[in-house]
Amino acid sequence: MAPAPAPQLSAILREAEAALASASSVQALAELRARFLGKQGSLTRVLRGLRELTATERAAAGQAANRVRDRIEALARERRSALQAEGQSRALSQQRLDVTLPGAAAPRGHLHPVSQVERDMCSFFQTLGYSIEDGPEVETDWNNFGALNFPEDHPARDLQDTFFLEDGHLLRTHTSPVQIRAMCGREPPFRFIVTGRVFRHDLDPTHYPMFHQIEGFCVGPDVSFGDLKGTLHAFARHLFGAEAKLRFRAHYFPFTEPSAEMDVSWEDGWLEWGGCGMIHPNVLRNCGLDPEAQQGFAFGMALDRAAMIRFGIPNIQLLFEGDLRVVEQF
Ligand code: PHE
User: Could you give phi then psi for residue 324, rounded to 5 degrees?
Assistant: First the structure.
């Protein structure tokens, strides 16, 4: 005689109700489901036993067992969503995010002092109608020296001063080769401003093997030395203040004639500021221009010096060592 399932079913249901109600995790819930409804589950065993009942008994008992199974399923679902909600609110209260806390600031970069000065100078000359021109740091001997009218035996061509490359190129020693590049094939009038790195064998507190120059030049049918002086005065006043005075000393450059070095008044004295002059007829000719029809002026100076003055930096090496503790101050 097969066991009467009814009392057994309600015992299973009561046991399941109690167990599910106290299940404390989704994991425990899955284990409980297996305990009642799995292959070896107690309800499954009852259902299996139905085989031994008569057809009518089986129908009634089967329905009762199915109701119990549905009930257990439903309880398990309810308990699961209750557990999930609990878990969520626990997580919410424990992992609270304080949106009022200050964030971790991303470190912000800024322009190097030399770049700041360079940009300022370029925009000054742009207001005077100059265009920006650029050239490579590795140059030919012709552009750096030959076309600029340097004699073959000029001391600047010496290994002592110039970094030569094995293939016959060199690291430009000044920005003047950009004059050659800009003037060749160009129809005057034009005026250009050039900034960039230049390289010379030099190292002491005010010299570094690499430094920056700014160079300007202007060519047209009636450009004069007076235009040059006026331009440099305006530039000096822009950089050093409205009171800045300039002093011109006769000098020699192969690529300008006449040539001058200029000093700017600074703190009760004079500061060597750069070179300038009227572009030499040979240079104009080397660029395919007619010196009878066109004249031009050119000037050039280091711009690191201006950065050192503006920011009160005593040693040029500080500018280029890339030490953030230094650079970040400006
Ligand atoms: N190229 C010169 C130098 O490096 C500077 C200069 C430029 C002088 C233009 C005259 C005209 O010293």
Answer: -60, -30
